[in-house]
C-alpha cells in the first residue's frame, strides 16, 4: 500500500478513478497545500475520507517528539513501516522556519565524529518518506502561526548517496509544497559524481559541502570518503557547481578541539574558500558517544573565525540548536532520549524571539 506522499498525481487519479474528475485535484490540494490527512478533509464525503484514510496511510509513525527548553527546536523520532527509524528537526528563527530532514536511515559514510555515522547504514528513504517529513514540520509550524520556509538535507544520511529519491523529493517539495529552490539546501560530505549531477539539474538548490579539513592527510582521517574523492576532485566539482548554477556555496566545518582548529587549518581553509567565494559555517563539534574529542572552546572559535575574515572569507559561527534534546548537527542517532511529549499530543512551537543560528 502506498503512503499518502508516495503517490504522484497519476497514482492518486487512478486510486480515485470511480470518483468525479475534480476529486483527485481536491485531495491532492488537501494533502499538499492543506497539509491535511484524509480524515481532516472535511470537504470530502465522510465515506471517501474513511476510504482514503485506509488507502493512504502515513509512512511516518511518531515515536517521540522532543521540544527544546526554549521551545524553538522540535525533534521527531519516526518509526517507518519496516521498523527503521529516522529523525527530523524543526527550527524556528526570527525570520524563518527551517526543517532539517533525513535522507537515509543511518549513513554508510562512517565519519567518526558523527552520531549517525557511528550507527551505520540501515536503508534508503523513499521520496515520499522525505516529503512527509517536510509536511509534518509544515503542519506544526502552521499550528504555531508560522510558515515553513526552508528545507535543509542535513539530518541523517548522505543525500547524494540516495540521489534519485532525494531529487524526487526536492522536485515535489518545490512543485507541490511550493517552497522556492533558493530555500532548499543539500548538504554533502563530498560525493563528487553527485555534485556534478546536481549541477545539471534545472532547480538551483543551495549546496553545502561538509569540509572539516582542507588537507587530504587530515580529511582522510575525519571523512573516510575523502580517500575516494580527495580535495582536488571535490574542489573542482564545487567550482563546476558554482559556474553552472550561480548559487551560493557553503562549507561546513565542525571545529574539533586540537584537531582542525589551528591557525594553519584556518589558512588552508581560506585558501580553498576564498577563490570560490564560499561562505563558511563554523560549528563547534557537538559531543557524540563514540568520539573522544570535544568542540573547540569559544575563544579559539572566535579567533579561527577572525582569521578567516581577515583572509577575506565570510564566516559564521553557528550556535548549537537543540543540544538539550540531542537535535544538533551530527547528534541524530534514533535512540529515544531527551524530554519528550507523549505521542499524539501536538506540541506547538513557542513564538520565536531571537534570530541567529542556521
Ligand atoms: N551527510 C551529509 C548531511 C548530514 S550531516 C553531510 O555530512 O554533509 C549534517 C552536518 O552535520 C554535516 O556538516 C556534518 O559534518 C555535521 N556533523 C556531523 N557530526 C557532527 C558533530 N558531532 N558536531 C557538529 N557537526 C557535525
Ligand atoms: Fe554520514 Fe554526514 Fe554523518 Fe558523515 S557527517 S556519517 S556523511 S551523516
Condensed summary:
The chain is α/β, with parallel strands linked by helices and 358 residues long. The chain has 11 helices and 13 strands. A hairpin with a 5-residue loop joins strand 1 (61-67) and strand 2.
What does this structure look like?
The longest helix has 17 residues. The protein has 358 residues and is α/β, with parallel strands linked by helices. An eleven-stranded mixed β-sheet has the order 12-11-10-9-8-7-4-3-2-1-13. Strands 5-6 form a two-stranded antiparallel sheet. Helix content is 34%, strand content 18%. The chain contains eleven helices and 13 strands. The protein has two domains: 47 residues, no CATH class; 275 residues, TIM Barrel (Alpha-Beta Barrel). The structure holds S-adenosyl-L-homocysteine (SAH) and iron/sulfur cluster. The site of S-adenosyl-L-homocysteine has 16 residues, from strand 8 and strand 10.
Q: Keywords, please?
A:
single chain, about 350 residues, TIM Barrel, 2 domains, 11-stranded mixed beta sheet, two-stranded antiparallel sheet, disordered C terminus, binds S-adenosyl-L-homocysteine, binds iron/sulfur cluster
How do the strands line up in the largest sheet? 12-11-10-9-8-7-4-3-2-1-13
Termini separation: 37 Å
What's the SSE pattern? HHHEEEEEHEHEHEHEHHEHEHEE
Give the biggest sheet.
11 strands, mixed
Helix/strand layout:
Layout: H1 9-15, H2 22-32, H3 46-55, E1 61-67, E2 73-79, E3 85-92, E4 97-100, E5 104-106, H4 115-119, E6 121-124, H5 127-143, E7 150-153, H6 163-175, E8 184-188, H7 192-199, E9 206-210, H8 216-222, H9 231-245, E10 249-255, H10 263-276, E11 279-284, H11 298-310, E12 315-317, E13 340-341
Iron/sulfur cluster binds next to helix 4.
Amino acid at each position: 500500500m502506498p503512503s499518502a506522499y508516495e503517490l504522484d498525481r497519476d497514482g492518486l487519479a487512478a486510486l480515485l478513478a470511480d470518483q468525479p474528475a475534480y476529486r483527485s485535484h481536491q485531495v491532492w490540494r488537501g494533502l499538499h497545500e492543506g497539509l491535511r490527512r484524509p480524515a481532516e478533509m472535511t470537504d470530502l464525503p465522510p465515506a471517501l475520507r474513511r476510504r482514503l484514510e485506509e488507502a493512504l496511510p502515513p509512512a511516518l509513525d511518531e515515536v517521540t517528539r522532543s521540544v527544546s527548553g526554549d521551545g524553538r527546536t522540535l525533534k521527531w523520532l519516526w518509526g517507518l513501516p519496516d521498523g527503521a527509524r529516522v529523525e527530523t528537526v524543526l527550527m524556528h528563527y526570527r525570520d524563518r522556519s527551517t526543517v532539517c530532514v533525513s535522507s537515509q536511515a543511518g549513513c554508510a559514510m562512517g565519519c567518526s565524529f558523527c552520531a549517525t555515522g557511528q550507527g551505520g547504514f540501515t536503508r534508503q528513504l523513499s521520496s515520499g518518506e522525505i516529503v512527509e517529513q517536510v509536511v509534518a514540520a509544515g503542519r506544526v509550524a502552521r499550528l504555531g502561526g508560522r510558515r515553513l520556509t526552508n528545507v535543509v538535507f542535513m539530518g541523517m544520511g548522505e543525500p547524494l548517496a540516495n540521489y534519485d529519491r532525494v531529487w524526487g523529493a526536492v522536485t515535489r517539495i518545490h512543485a507541490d509544497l511550493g517552497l522556492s529552490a533558493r530555500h532548499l539546501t543539500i548538504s554533502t560530505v563530498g560525493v563528487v559524481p553527485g555534485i556534478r549531477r546536481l549541477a545539471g539539474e534545472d532547480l538551483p538548490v543551495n549546496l553545502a559541502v561538509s569540509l572539516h579539513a582542507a588537507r587530504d592527510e587530515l580529511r582522510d582521517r575525519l571523512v573516510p570518503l575523502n580517500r575516494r574523492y580527495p580535495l582536488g576532485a571535490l574542489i573542482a566539482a564545487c567550482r563546476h557547481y558554482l559556474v553552472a548554477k550561480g548559487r551560493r556555496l557553503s562549507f561546513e566545518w565542525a571545529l574539533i578541539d586540537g584537531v582542525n582548529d589551528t591557525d594553519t587549518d584556518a589558512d588552508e581553509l581560506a585558501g580553498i574558500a576564498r577563490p570560490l567565494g564560499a561562505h563558511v559555517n563554523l560549528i563547534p563539534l557537538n559531543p557524540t558517544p563514540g568520539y573522544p574529542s570535544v568542540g573547540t572552546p569559544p575563544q579559539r572559535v572566535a579567533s579561527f573565525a577572525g582569521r578567516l575574515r581577515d583572509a577575506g572569507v565570510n564566516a559564521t559561527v553557528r550556535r548549537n540548536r537543540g543540544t538539550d534534546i540531542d537535535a544538533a548537527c551530527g547528534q541524530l542517532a534514533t535512540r529515544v532520549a531527551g524530554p519528550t511529549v507523549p505521542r499524539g499530543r501536538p506540541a506547538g512551537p513557542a513564538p520565536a524571539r531571537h534570530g541567529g543560528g542556521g
